[in-house]
């Protein structure tokens, strides 16, 4: 599908834009380039649909979401191929994303039936208080390219379960997964206008984002992407006081204490650093390794990288590292490496562009990294693992916390008291203790500080789309 999906219909736009395969640079297709009028029309369609969708029984909403989930599972092979084609990630990871993505629809089909209110006994006589939970209205959903499917269902599953309707603006690099989801939503019987998609090119993204986030008919903005863009959307939200969920950048520390099991730490480091070639917001950005275990960790990490990582086209069997999304992303990794090396870091492995193609970079390990280097305080979003050596627990926590963002954090330790202390002290929204992959539909995903607002997935995720209404029932 290449057209926009609004009010249950496939609609062309005045113009189209090309979507590229990041591995080869080939054009995958031309997609409707929606502008402000199309975005407004989608909001209107979503608003009209909201008036009836909020009245649909929770059981019915639940069963429609479940059907959508079933259709994703029936088409999981094709959905995975789309993800690999447009994002470049290895097919195995794309298959894992489809499953993860579908599970949000399943999870929220279940949560739809568990929206509870409260009864309160106030101090005033002859009164009872009720707390109702009501859907917010239309949600503008703006999603990134690194998880073209899962970042949509994580928001949309919760929104639809709550009784909200949505307008999705997918990233310009990866609109096909969003459109495939529209096709399946339609087949599942989700009513027209409940799930709308307006793809647009990079040059229109700003005005379309603004139109969606300032429209008076939109009640909620849910965004996953960079902290810089998140701040712009928060300004838009302020003007009309919209509810917001923001899942923004991170700078995940990965701490290995002397007490750690080094082999477990190496496995976790590989998984958390190199998933999607380092292009996830929960990827470890900084490895902090205690002096007693440092040399053994670096040596084993390098060996494991050599043994397990294979750069190539995502469709080739055995590939674990696909391309980065575009050349700008490659330039950023390159800059982080050269900055670190110029300030005294040692290249243990990799360190340069990969011969496979212009968007590919070698999995890279740096040691002797210090706090003043770019890679220690800026999100790299690529296959670069910089190792900083530390001596004490206090020092590690201080380095980990010395940033304005706080999404995920990981640490390896076999000391129960240390585990408890450090888990509490890390200023992040999610902690992996002796575990490098922590995302799961049952658990709350989100950050603190400038990494965002709100939580997605879990039993908390649905609250982001519900309003609390207090009803004071007097005269008793
Ligand atoms: C994070 O670390 C800093 C420096 O050690 C410390 O001042 C701060 O209290 C820590 N945060 C928490 C939540 O403990």
TrEMBL record:
<keyword id="KW-0809">Transit peptide</keyword>
<dbReference type="InterPro" id="IPR016163">
    <property type="entry name" value="Ald_DH_C"/>
</dbReference>
<keyword id="KW-1015">Disulfide bond</keyword>
<comment type="function">
    <text>Catalyzes one step in the degradation of the inhibitory neurotransmitter gamma-aminobutyric acid (GABA).</text>
</comment>
<dbReference type="Pfam" id="PF00171">
    <property type="entry name" value="Aldedh"/>
</dbReference>
<comment type="pathway">
    <text>Amino-acid degradation; 4-aminobutanoate degradation.</text>
</comment>
<dbReference type="GO" id="GO:0004777">
    <property type="term" value="F:succinate-semialdehyde dehydrogenase (NAD+) activity"/>
</dbReference>
<dbReference type="GO" id="GO:0006536">
    <property type="term" value="P:glutamate metabolic process"/>
</dbReference>
<feature type="active site">
    <location>
        <position position="247"/>
    </location>
</feature>
<dbReference type="InterPro" id="IPR015590">
    <property type="entry name" value="Aldehyde_DH_dom"/>
</dbReference>
<dbReference type="GO" id="GO:0007417">
    <property type="term" value="P:central nervous system development"/>
</dbReference>
<keyword id="KW-0007">Acetylation</keyword>
<dbReference type="InterPro" id="IPR010102">
    <property type="entry name" value="Succ_semiAld_DH"/>
</dbReference>
<dbReference type="InterPro" id="IPR016161">
    <property type="entry name" value="Ald_DH/histidinol_DH"/>
</dbReference>
<dbReference type="GO" id="GO:0009450">
    <property type="term" value="P:gamma-aminobutyric acid catabolic process"/>
</dbReference>
<dbReference type="GO" id="GO:0045202">
    <property type="term" value="C:synapse"/>
</dbReference>
<dbReference type="InterPro" id="IPR050740">
    <property type="entry name" value="Aldehyde_DH_Superfamily"/>
</dbReference>
<keyword id="KW-0560">Oxidoreductase</keyword>
<keyword id="KW-0597">Phosphoprotein</keyword>
<dbReference type="InterPro" id="IPR029510">
    <property type="entry name" value="Ald_DH_CS_GLU"/>
</dbReference>
<comment type="similarity">
    <text>Belongs to the aldehyde dehydrogenase family.</text>
</comment>
<comment type="subunit">
    <text>Homotetramer.</text>
</comment>
<dbReference type="GO" id="GO:0009791">
    <property type="term" value="P:post-embryonic development"/>
</dbReference>
<dbReference type="GO" id="GO:0006105">
    <property type="term" value="P:succinate metabolic process"/>
</dbReference>
<dbReference type="GO" id="GO:0042802">
    <property type="term" value="F:identical protein binding"/>
</dbReference>
<keyword id="KW-0496">Mitochondrion</keyword>
<feature type="domain" description="Aldehyde dehydrogenase">
    <location>
        <begin position="12"/>
        <end position="471"/>
    </location>
</feature>
<keyword id="KW-0520">NAD</keyword>
<dbReference type="GO" id="GO:0005739">
    <property type="term" value="C:mitochondrion"/>
</dbReference>
<protein>
    <recommendedName>
        <fullName>Succinate-semialdehyde dehydrogenase</fullName>
        <ecNumber>1.2.1.24</ecNumber>
    </recommendedName>
</protein>
<dbReference type="InterPro" id="IPR016160">
    <property type="entry name" value="Ald_DH_CS_CYS"/>
</dbReference>
<dbReference type="GO" id="GO:0051932">
    <property type="term" value="P:synaptic transmission, GABAergic"/>
</dbReference>
<dbReference type="InterPro" id="IPR016162">
    <property type="entry name" value="Ald_DH_N"/>
</dbReference>
